[in-house]
Design goal:
Elements: H1 3-32, H2 34-37, E1 43-44, H3 47-52, E2 62-66, E3 69-74, E4 77-80, E5 83-84, E6 92-98, E7 101-106, E8 110-113, E9 119-123, E10 133-138, E11 144-148, E12 152-155, E13 162-165, H4 180-191, E14 195-196, H5 197-206, H6 212-249
Antiparallel strand pairs: 1-14, 2-3, 3-4, 4-5, 6-7, 7-8, 8-9, 10-11, 11-12, 12-13
Helix pairs in contact: 1-5, 1-6
Length: 250
């Protein structure tokens, strides 16, 4: 490869590298002054950006209108009105309102909540609760029933004893269509207030904002920088040698 070809490739690679040098320089400068610009406190809630980071529900929200409250499930997160409840890595299977408290059913447990959504107690198999819950319901006398994968159970008012029972024609917990505005608020809460500006800039600087592809691009850019360094030095020595030959001829 002659000197002219080397210079042509050097110019092309140089133009490509310039773009990345500008991005790296700007993002590097901002990261050095994170505390000065308070980048860790500035949140970006742009919908396209949140979608790019895949911060969105995997499934559509499911709501239950219980008593005078809305209970909504987004993926594995349960919300009582607009407040998120602790995540126990169990699927939600309905809720009922009894006298002055709410009863929420999960796979292998039930939560008792106040009318304000405060946790009173969590009941599990240690309290005699049947496992494999699929739904919860109550009769006209506020008797509580559970449907499991292979049976039905009823409880006393203290929820301390659960006994198998025949299938009863009682109102079971069912899904409801929640107001659109309420759902939008819950989804917004699920997605959070946004991403810290510091993280976005750091991902830009490292290329991770493009995922695995971004890391490969940065690797390629590093190789381009090395090639530019070697070709630059090679070109300089080559020109110097040619100039020396010309000077010697004259």
């Amino acid at each position: 490869m002659n000197l002219q070809s080397i210079n042509s490739w050097h110019k092309v690679l140089g133009m490509v590298a310039t773009i990345f040098i500008i991005v790296l320089s700007i993002t590097g400068f901002l990261l050095l002054h994170t505390e000065d610009f308070k980048l860790q406190d500035k949140l970006v809630a742009n919908e396209l950006l949140l979608n790019w980071y895949d911060i969105r529900p995997e499934h559509s929200p499911v709501s239950y209108n219980v008593g005078s409250k809305w209970i909504t499930v987004i993926d594995d997160q349960v919300y009582f009105e607009k407040n998120s409840l602790p995540n126990y890595n169990e699927s939600f299977h309905g809720a009922i309102f009894v006298e002055s408290f709410y009863v929420l059913a999960f796979d292998n447990s039930i939560d008792l909540l106040t009318e304000d959504g405060e946790l009173i107690e969590r009941l599990t198999s240690l309290h005699g609760l049947p496992q494999g819950i699929e739904n919860i319901g109550k009769d006209n006398e506020d008797g509580i029933y559970l449907k499991t994968s292979d049976n039905y159970f009823s409880s006393d008012r203290d929820l301390t004893r659960w006994q198998p029972t025949k299938q009863r024609d009682i109102p079971w917990s069912v899904r409801s269509e929640a107001p659109e505005g309420y759902i939008e608020q819950i989804i917004q809460q699920y997605r959070g207030s946004g991403l810290p500006m510091e993280r976005i800039i750091l991902d830009l600087h490292s290329g991770r904002i493009l995922g695995r592809l971004g890391i490969w691009i940065v690797d390629i850019v590093v190789i381009i920088f090395l090639v530019l360094s070697f070709t630059g030095w090679w070109s300089w020595f080559k020109r110097r040698a040619l100039q020396k030959e010309i000077d010697e001829e004259y």
